[in-house]
């Protein structure tokens, strides 16, 4: 994942179907993942044009 404008990499992690992903809004999801800088678990908010289940490769209702 890269920031808008500068295309700087800000998140480099895999998303699994078993991961807890919450739909924060129509254009963003919230995930929990490891932060390699401080070796801790953090909550990340990821924005996109839309986050439907089909875009994430999930079945209907799998995105919380």
Automatic annotation (TrEMBL):
**Which InterPro entries does the entry link to?**
PH-like_dom_sf (IPR011993)
Protein name in the entry? RANBP3
Read off the lineage from the record.
Eukaryota, Metazoa, Chordata, Craniata, Vertebrata
């Amino acid at each position: 994942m890269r920031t808008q404008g500068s295309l700087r990499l800000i998140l480099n992690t895999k998303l699994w179907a078993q991961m807890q992903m919450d739909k924060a809004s129509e254009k963003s999801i919230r995930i929990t993942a490891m932060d390699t800088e401080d070796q801790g678990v953090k909550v990340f908010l990821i924005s996109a044009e839309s986050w439907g289940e089909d875009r994430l490769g999930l079945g209907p209702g799998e995105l919380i």
